């Protein structure tokens, strides 16, 4: 299924543990997202949940994660408002498939994570940055506005006041401050190695449980509390009675399961 994809701007490989590695592969353009790249993201994240993949690492070639919208393509295309709206709808389709697809996605961040690059990163479930990673929303300075979901996802991560500041003033976040404000959950010397470790941990969960975590929580956040608690109960009804969970419960009941203690973590 994944082998049939015709990808020019990214590559995908799945290892024996079912962990997919999706690599943005336009380093000469700092992995800027042109229209074709967005269509490729849609194709990948349409196929991924049905391909038996247990987790996905999203990484990039070159020194930067992603420079956002392909500004040069946008300039030359001289798009109409309707054209750009449809392009944004493609971005939303790709990023919604990521956030709501049910497969854990771990983004390995480095260098610039800016504009649409930050929108892409914020559609992942876990972000892992290194000391060289910086986050920005340069749209304001470019005479543009966000169109790939930043008003929802970036504002959701850091709050609207910080997002507005980033857009009005070009403020960049990096290092410990980026963790504090919520742009990345991890700040480590080796983001690739940490992401692999996290993907391995997530891939050990039952796929149906991960589906609930990586789609249910986002859906419920969009609902009123009454509907969300109802939907949570229905989802838990399905997930918490799955036959595969019984083996894990059986191990716990026999005292054979790993305990939830810091010293029991690897
Ligand atoms: C690009 C892009 C791009 C680089 N579109 N081609 N995003 C931005 O405003 C960020 C714009 N980019 C930069 O500020 C810098 O390029 C970087 C900090 C990311 C990297 O700097 P550097 O010194 O490593 O590379 P460079 O020399 O600036 O760029 C290398 C090449 O990548 C060069 O092309 P070349 O043909 O001259 O070699 C650049 O033109 C090209 N390149 N970034 C197109 N973004 C759904 S709405 C979302 C709205 C937005 O995302 S707005 C934010 C856009």
Automatic annotation (TrEMBL):
One of its GO terms (biological process) is fatty acid beta-oxidation. Its EC number is 4.2.1.17. Pfam families: ECH_1. GO terms for molecular function: enoyl-CoA hydratase activity. SUPFAM superfamilies: ClpP/crotonase. Keywords: Lyase. Belongs to the enoyl-CoA hydratase/isomerase family. This is Enoyl-CoA hydratase.
